[in-house]
Amino acid sequence: MNRRPRPRGRLKPSSTAVGGLPVNAVFLVGFMGAGKTSVGRVLGQRLNWVFEDLDDRIAAREGRTVREIFRDSGESEFRRAEHAALEHVLHELRGGVARIVALGGGAFAQKENAALLRVSCVSTVFLDAPVEDLWQRCCAEARETGAERPLLRSVAEFRDLYQIRRSAYSQALLRIQTGNRTVETIAAEIAETLGLNKIAEPTEQGEVE
Ligand code: S3P
To answer: Most confidently modeled of 8-12, 79-83, 91-95?
Structure first.
């Protein structure tokens, strides 16, 4: 079995991951508005690792935006494209380039994706926050940037979906609370807890999303 034991408490600083496996990838998981992209970007800068958002890879591979995929082909087609994109990233990791990957909010809740990440022995980190905060962040982002999330509908649906997915997110190797913390603080905690080498100093500070 390729399973890695889940860490209890803090991990010893080391350039190898839990269970002695090399850490060359950190996958950030969690609900919409958890700050996966903003934390991932800062963590990438801090470690001098490549950062990517899986949704961007999906859009590039499909030649249309996530919103267009949902609108024209439906959620099941989006999930197919998401799984294929994840397989592709994991395949590229074998080339050895260290990277941080922000997954879309539904990716880790799909059993086949979680299983793929587990057997790939990469580190998964659940960015958690109260659902009301997540809703407020998504609404603020929609107002400020015009970002349209296909699954951002009513607050009631948002809460329901969060409850359905929460136990899946909890299967991640680490869980980090993000409420009222800066992205830099969160990125620092991830780097320290996973014992990752700090190659570059942080260059950006800011609140989560
Ligand atoms: C989704 C979240 C989105 C994006 C897609 C589906 C979800 O990503 O992948 O709209 O199912 O929760 P973010 O979590 O970055 O918003």
So the answer is: 79-83
**Ligand 1 atom with the shortest distance to the CA of 67:** 10
CB of 195 sitting under 6 A from ligand 1: no
CA dist., res. 35 & res. 190, Å (int): 13
Beta strands in 117-209 (DSSP E): 123-128, 174-177
pLDDT at 86 over 80: yes
Nearest to 53, CA basis, from 69, 65, 41: 41
Q: Which amino acid does the sequence have at 1? A: M
3 state SS of 193: helix
Question: What pLDDT does 197 receive?
Answer: 62
CA of 32 to the centre of ligand 1 (A): 6
Among residues 147, 148, 127, the alpha carbon closest in space to that of 42 is found at: 127
Residue 66 CB less than 6 A away from ligand 1: yes
- Please indicate whether residue 149, judged by its CB atom, sits closer than 6 Å to ligand 1: yes
Q: In angstroms, rounded to a whole number, what is the distance separating the alpha carbons of residues 97 and 83?
A: 21
